[in-house]
Amino acid sequence: FNTYKGSLNAAALCVGYYLGGRVEEYTAYSTGDWSKIVRFCDLTFIGHQPLKSLIIDFRKHKANQHGLYCAKVEALCCCKQGMCPVHIIWQYLQFRNEIWSNANNSPLLLQLNNGYPLNSNHVNNLVKNMVTKLKLNPYDYSSHSLRSGRATDLSRCNVKDEHIQKWGRWRSDCWKEHYAKLDHSDIAEITSLTLSDLGVVRNVSF
Question: pTM for this one?
């Protein structure tokens, strides 16, 4: 995490997993529409020394193409787990501000070499490389696996269905069928985790 590239990768994973971002909301395809990408100014940090939480405003997304209603997701600081989305994204911003200052309306996650939004293929490859190291089949995973994995984790930990639906900004309960990959054999090992341990969303509004 001590380089721009490393902190950028970590921030992308945090947005995709903890905050439930769809890949098109924080990265761009080569000819993608940048208007829906989360911007620097769409972030709000709560607290200061220590930071308590981070709010991302997904102003436009798959179920809100025209930005007609508010879709904010908040992640809590969970530093004791070692992978805290609040501080990882904060650290990335320190690198970002040194290079791309005064760019509040620009996309949040910027490539180092050209200031363009992070490419979606980069995140896909990042996920595939990670699962390959875990000796899993990389063809079964992509950037969207971050959303699927988080929905699964929350469901396994008995987070209420309506809270998961709001976290993922789904307009229906379709996530139950297409996202949560439940395997009840290992639920007992993780149900002892508290919502704070998981960095679960506290406030979500539409």
Answer: 0.83
Which amino acid appears at position 181 of this protein?
Answer: K
Verify cis geometry, omega within 30 degrees of 0, for the bond prior to 50.
Answer: yes
Euclidean distance between CA atoms 11 and 89, whole angstroms? 5
Nearest to 19 by CA among 83, 76, 78: 76
Report pLDDT digits (tens) over 91-144: 999 999 988 876 778 899 999 888 889 999 999 999 999 889 888 888 888 898
Looking from the CA of 9 toward its CB, the CA atoms found within 13 Å total 13
Residue 121, number of CB atoms within 10 A of its CB: 13
Contact (CB, 8 A) for 24 and 18 = no
Q: Are 64 and 71 in contact (CB under 8 A)?
A: yes
Quickly state the pLDDT bin for 203 (edges 50, 70, 90). very low
User: CA 152 to CA 190: how far, in whole Å?
Assistant: 12
- Please tell me the distance from the alpha carbon of residue 141 to that of residue 158, in angstroms, as a whole number: 24
Distance CA 111, CA 166 (A): 30
